[in-house]
Amino acid sequence: MLMASASIVNADHVDDVITTQMRERQIPGVALAVIEGGKIVREQGYGFRDEGRVEPVTPATLFQAASVSKPVAALGALRLVEEGRISLDEDINSKLRSWRVPDNHFTKNHPVTLRLILSHSAGLTVDGFPGYRVGSPIPSLLQILDGRPPANTPPVRVDQIPGSKWRYSGGGYLVMQQMMIDVTGQSFADYMQDAVLRPLGMSSSTFAQPLPESLANRAATGFTDAPRRPVEGRWHIKPELAAGGLWTTAGDLARFLLGIQRSLAGTSNPVISQSMTRQMLTKQKEDSGLGFFLGGDDPPRFGHNGSNPGFNAVTLALCDSGEGAVFLMNANTDIETLKNILVGAVIEQYHWPGYPKKRPTPNQTMKPTAPDQMTTSVFAADPYRGLSLSR
Q1: What is the pLDDT of residues 325-374, one digit of tens each?
Q2: pLDDT value, residue 369
Q3: pLDDT tens figures, 243-290
Q4: Using one digit for the tens of pLDDT, what is the confidence trace for 216-251?
Q5: What's the burial of 167, exposed, middle or buried (CB within 10 Å: 0-12/13-18/19+)?
Q6: d(CA 190, CA 44)
Q7: 107 vs 57, 127, 284, 389, CA distance in Å?
Q8: What does the domain layout of the chain look like in residue ranges?
């Protein structure tokens, strides 16, 4: 069953591609938002959000954003930098109060900084977090950072010289989360609501975990790998908020991307300045900016993927023009390959500048992405190769 916004009446190329991929990959539901000319022109739901396949996905359906939470959290941290409450390049231990990054021989002459955390080059461990089943004990942030029960992941520690190498680290974003709590004196969810979500008009988004009951009736149920079955308890609880704890809609994530585009252009800066946005979208280490992954110069673009148990997310936007796309789904699949197919359909239909009109068939050899893990795909002969910028 297709639920469309009022402006989308007849099925088109994007519809055909999405429904075909849903059928072939057994994805129960997908939410789409498209940005064109600096505004959201399409918010649309496909399929179903519940186990019984009764409740359709609509533009109001909430999904877990998974690792797309990271650039949203990064924006909140960069606001603190602009306010002078922390520096990008100071030892983060100078701002941490409730917990500190344990010193060792790797950090003796090379402290962990916010810039290194945001660009995945701080030498911190733990790439991703599986979350916790509904009804199971939920650890505190401090327990997760130290790997103490009931945490289900190892402690977050420095095991290589900060700044020396790029390595994806969700653990680093938890160190940042604790820093933001210590600096602001607020819960992370409350600070992000005040500093980022509300100013950008993301009225259906929250970092509150567990998800409040008032929002649970709008949320999609997550589905595991084939054969598809619902995640026990419908979804996992993610106390690792900055790394993967955002609940949101496709439209709200499009508002987030629009906020970045407008801030970069200097037309609207409700969270950070134009100059800070330029830093956010400047490569720091490999393809990492400060929170986003960046791709190419023709055209320059930014985005991030996400994968939690039962949920996948894709965001991509152009830096210098008002185009972008968001896809949220309540199932896990080979997200790198699917991203190129879905975004390619949007590019072809909406004629994004700098891209060829005819989309080639992408390499289909990618393996499924594990929840909250990252993969990097390379399509050597693919003019859409820059779409593989995000994790």
Answers
A1: 999 999 999 999 999 999 999 999 999 998 876 544 444 333 334 445 43
A2: 41
A3: 999 999 999 999 999 999 999 999 999 999 999 999 999 999 999 999
A4: 999 999 999 778 999 999 999 999 999 999 999 999
A5: middle
A6: 29
A7: 48, 19, 19, 29
A8: 2-61+250-389
pLDDT surpasses 60 at 16 = yes
Query: Distance between CA atoms of 19 and 3, rounded to whole angstroms?
Result: 12
In the structure, what pLDDT confidence band is assigned to residue 114 with cuts at 50, 70 and 90?
very high
List the structure tokens of 148. Answer: 């103490």
Tell me how far CA of residue 48 lies from CA of 18, 213, 236, 241, 330, in angstroms. Answer: 13, 20, 19, 26, 9
The C-alpha atoms of residue 221 and residue 63 are separated, in whole angstroms, by 8
Q: Please identify which residue in the block is written with the tokens 């009109």.
A: 357
Which residues, including other chains, have CB under 8 Å from residue 175's CB and lie 6 or more apart? 92, 96, 101, 112, 117, 122, 124, 145, 156
